[in-house]
Amino acid sequence: MLDYYGVSELFTPEERQVQASVREFVDAEALPHVSRWWEEGVFPGQLVPRLGELGLLGASLPTEYGAAGVSNIAYGLIMYELERADSALRSFTSVQGALVMWPIHEYGTEEQKRRYLPGLAKGEIIGCFALTEREGGSDPGAMQTRARADGDSYVISGTKMWITNGGIADVAVVWAMDDEDVVRGFLAPTDTPGFAANPIPRKMSMRMSSTSELTFRDVRVPATQMMPGAKGLGAALSCLTQARYGIVWGVLGALE
Predict the structure, then answer these.
(1) Residue 118 near residue 59, CB atoms below 8 Å
(2) Which of these, 147, 166, 175, 155, lies nearest to 238 by C-alpha position?
(3) CA 253, chain centre distance (Å)
(4) Pairing relation of β-strands 171-177 and 127-130?
(5) Distance, C-alpha 141 to centroid of its chain
(6) Within its chain, how far is the Cα of 171 from the centroid?
(7) What is the pLDDT of residue 191?
(8) How many CA atoms, within 13 angstroms, populate the side-chain half-sphere of residue 207?
C-alpha cells in the first residue's frame, strides 16, 4: 500500500483483513484483464455479483439491510484497492454504495429501504445517480429537469449527462425540480416508459465505466417512489459529499 506516513499502523485487524481480501480479489480477477477491458471500453459486468458476494457494495451501511456494516476506514480501503485496478471499478462501487444505497438509507422510507437495499448490496440490482446536467454540471441550482405532480404520480421530464452506471442500471436516483421549484429525489426504474440511456462513446478516460446520457420523456413514477427526506439542494449535495470520501481513498489507489 502507498503509505509514506505509516497511517496503516492505525488500522484495526478487521480493517487489515478487509484490505487484504479486496487486494487478493483485485489481483486475481481484475488486474489480469483491465488492459483489455480498457482497450475495448467495456464494463466487466461479470464482476458485479462478486462485488456483492464480498460485501463491497454499500459496505459501511447497516447489516440489517444486507450490507457489510464495516467501518469508514475499511470502506476507504475497499475504494483504494478497487481503484488500484482501474478508476471505473471504484466508480461503479462508489455510485452503487454512496450515491444510490446511501441516499435511500438516509432519505428513503422504510419500505424503499427494504425493497432496494438488500438487492443493491448483493449486486442483483444496479443503480445510478442522475443529477448532472449538460448546462449546469453538478449544480442542483441550475437544474432543468422537472417532476410534475399528476394525481398519485409524478411525471419526470429532462436530460441528465455523464451518468456513471447509466447504461446498466435497473433504478435511477433522479433529481428534479417539483412544481414549487424544490429539488426532490425520486427512485425511477429504468424500464419505465419514456426512459432511455444513450451511451457516451470514444471517451479518453473512465473507458471501462458505463457512462450515459439519460433522457426522461414524461417518465411516470408513483408518488411512493419519491424519497421523502430528499428535499432541497442540501440533500443532493450531501450525496456528493458522501461519495467524495471514497474517491479520496480511491485516487491513492490509482497513484499506487
Answers:
(1) no
(2) 175
(3) 19
(4) parallel
(5) 21
(6) 11
(7) 98
(8) 13
Cβ atoms of 94 and 129 within 8 Å: the answer is: no
**What are 58-105's pLDDT values in tens digits?**
999 999 999 999 999 999 999 999 999 999 999 999 999 999 999 999
Q: Is 4 exposed, middle or buried (0-12, 13-18, 19+ CB in 10 A)?
A: exposed
Rounded alpha-carbon distances, angstroms, from residue 213 to 55, 208, 210, 218, 238: 29, 16, 10, 16, 23
Instruction: Measure CA of the first residue to CA of the last residue in the chain; give whole Å.
Output: 7
What DSSP assignment string belongs to the chain?
---TT-GGGG--HHHHHHHHHHHHHHHHHTTTTHHHHHHHT---GGGHHHHHHTT-TTTTS-GGGT-----HHHHHHHHHHHHHH-HHHHHHHHIIIIIIIHHHHHHS-HHHHHHHHHHHHHTSS-EEEE--BTTTBT-GGG---EEEEETTEEEEEEEEEEEETTTT-SEEEEEEE-TTS-EEEEEEETTSTTEEEEE--S-SS-TTS-EEEEEEEEEEEEGGGEEEEEESHHHHHHHHHHHHHHHHHHHHHHH-
Q: Is this structure's pTM higher than 0.70?
A: yes
